[in-house]
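=== RUN LOG ===
request id: a7f3
mode: sequence -> structure
chains: 1
length: 490
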Amino acid sequence: MPKLDEEVKKIFDVGFSLHQQGKLEEAEVAYNEILKNNNENAEIYNLLGVLKLQQNDVISAIHFIEQAIKKEENEYFYETLFQAYIRAKLYKQITSYETLVLKKFPQNFSLLFNLALAYKNLKDNKKAILFYDKALKINPTSYDGWFNLAHLYNIEGEVKNAISALKICQKLRPKDKDTEYFLSLAYMRLKDYDKGLKLFENRFSKDTAFSLQNKSYPNKATAKNLWQGEDIKNKTLLVYYEAGFGDTIMFARYLPLVANRCKKLIFMVQKPLAPLFKINSLGVDEIIDSYIPEQNIDFDVHVPLLSLPYLLKLKGERVFAYPEGYLKADEKLTKVYKEKFFNNDKIKVGIKWQGNTFFDMDRVIPSEEFLPLMEVENTQYYSFQTFEGSEDISKLKQNNIINIGKDLINFSQTAAALSNLDLVICNDTSLAHLAGAMGIPCWIILPYEVNWRWHTDLTKCDWYDCVKLFRQHKIGDWKGVFEDILNEMV
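=== RESULT ===
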């Protein structure tokens, strides 16, 4: 900072002290007073930028920090500027400084880390990996650096590298649940379920499900009587859902196995799924789809659904028990839907383009991407899109698509409708799991970042024999994957 005269230095000392005390408005007055006398003082501009960041006025912060840099190319100023750009999600502005950083500040961990973060957010994974690697050579103890690098390796299918990075995270933060959870997903993506399922017990959904049951049944659903795989042949077991519809359908395959281990099996399931599981008992003695007062429910031990394969000690291919056909539709309802919607000689194709956007936007497909498929001769398309996203059927109306989704309230109805199809083509959503569990041919359209359950070999689906997988060739490119599907159809 340039040398200040005594009076200005006093103002600076007061302003800086006020800033440190969190008295931001008063500090700002002092800083502005200095600029009246010395508007070339780069440090004051930078401090005003820091102050504006603290006030969540990011645009003003960027203005002041850029002014500081014009007057002095200070390494610290660039660090502050990158932080402001990140707050404003101006990632391209950060990457525009790549050459400067590599030339002038090649050993600055913060600048390299934030370049990596910017490229990560811009979906340029290879560049992001490059800069995380450079940053970690400078500071190999950065947990966030290794964790973000692991995520990028996983997206790019370099799962073994992801595991190596997460093992370093384990050393930096022993017994960290986030680390162990994501390590479990990496192992399971490689089909190493012996290691993966044990670590999968650290998942957040398990904790949430247990907490909910413990709140509902504080005297019965306790940590003490959480089933740990012990002998329960003379006991009643409560199994409860913990995640989305698709997870419930997929992991329901283990209910017959656990039913053989206990005296009575109670299954608590989401209300829209309850009618389907009342048709398909899977060894379950009682289905619950709503709250029952504690005095009216009786069980000895309890467990969240997604823990079953671990507690059943399933090894190797046994993890994929019942690869298809373990769920059936109601025969009478199937006939009703046939007469109402499917009484034609065409190839009947059901489609869906969107699931729950609260969890994941990458799996949402613009509905108009299906238009080229509708040009295939002798095909009749049915929209199974329900609720959120169903308005996008308007983009397909000119192609004589039948909107069956508006009539589907629960999964028993969906199953009955599916039973009349020749093929399902949909995004990675609960409809795909239902079709797979019923043995109905289903083509699942995957984003570039593949969920752990589809593994690394996408030429086959281990969970459902009737499922074929199609993945984006590059991030955000749906057209390419639909070209693959169209070639398969014709």
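=== NOTES ===
The chain has three domains: 1-88, 205-320, 331-489.
Residues 111 and 309 are 44 Å apart (CA to CA).
=== END ===
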